[in-house]
Every structure is written in C-alpha cells, then in structure tokens.
Design goal:
mainly beta, OB fold (Dihydrolipoamide Acetyltransferase, E2P), 10 strands, five-stranded mixed beta sheet
Length: 174
C-alpha cells in the first residue's frame, strides 16, 4: 500500500461543502414533548439526556410536583412532574412516559433537574422570526415559564423557559 497515494486522497480543509445535510440550521432547536395532548418545546442545548420512566426515591415532605430523586452517574437529580407543576390533569405513567434531564447554568450555578413528560415528539427548528410572544390569557402554564409560541402546521408549540422551570418553588393550587 502506497502511503503517498492515500495522503493525496485526504481532503484539504474547505475543499468539500456539506450540501444536503439538513441538521445544520441557522435557527434555534427545541426538543418537543407532549403533556396532556399539548406540545411544548425546550432549548435542545440544555437537554442532558432522555431517560425512560423509573420510580424515583421519594423525598419526605416535598411538594406534590416533586416525584423524588434519582442517582444519575453519581449526581443526585430531582425529578419534577410537569403535569403536576402546571396542574395539567392527572399524572399517568405509561410506556411512553420519559424523564427529560436538563442541565442549565444560571448566575454561575449549574443545575441538573429531570422533568417527567408524557412523550418526546421531535426536534423543532425555529427561526427567531417564527417565535411569537405568548398571549397572557391565564392558561395552566405560568407566563414567566413561557418564552414564546411557534406554529408548526396546525399545531401550536409552547416554548418553555429553562431558567424558570428549574426554580424549585412549590406549586400552590389556586
């Protein structure tokens, strides 16, 4: 085998273009998921992993929306049920139920929290111009937890704010 001939076949930087690759976008990407037949999205750069549902270890005297904690490779991760946090129907755990683990740094502190959702849907590419301000109409999700909404075909996807989600304030029923 001639090493010089092989070296001649190695592409030079910038020689080839990446045409036809659709995963490179100029917009933001969001992981979309379902909660009670509604679609929500979260910044995909904050998603640490998606885990199948497992019953976490309970924490005594924790708020209703805190299911407990899990040990994820040596990190103790609180698990929050978004249905309970937003008071969206009954929390039902099925074979499609997953935990979306988010890691986000805010004010110099990195926080990892898992959120129970009904099912993961897709990855959504959205340009900033497509994201509309959410109308304040008093829905289940508090306004401070919403970054905006995006129309995807006939569906509206509510984009959630990771920083607001990761605040562990108790949810008080009205």
């Amino acid at each position: 085998m001639d090493i010089q001939a092989l070296a001649a076949d190695v592409p030079v930087e910038g020689e080839y273009s990446l045409e036809g690759i659709d995963f490179i976008t100029s917009g933001e990407q969001y992981l979309t998921f379902m909660l009670n037949d509604e679609q929500y999205g979260i910044d995909i750069l904050c998603v640490e992993e998606i885990r199948s549902w497992e019953v976490p270890t309970k924490i005594p005297n924790s708020p209703d929306d805190v299911c407990g904690v899990i040990n994820m490779r040596g990190i103790i991760v609180p698990i929050i049920d978004l249905r309970k946090k937003f008071n969206i129907g009954e929390a039902v755990y099925s074979e499609t139920t997953v935990v979306v683990v988010l890691t986000h740094e805010y004010e110099g502190v990195s926080r990892t929290i898992g959120f129970v959702v009904d099912a993961v849907s897709d990855v959504l590419d959205a340009d900033e111009s497509e994201i509309k301000k959410s109308p304040a109409f008093g829905g289940c999700v508090p306004q401070h937890c919403i970054n905006g909404i995006v129309n995807v075909g006939d569906t509206v996807v509510t984009l959630l704010d990771v920083t607001s989600l990761q605040q562990l304030e108790p949810h008080y029923k009205r």
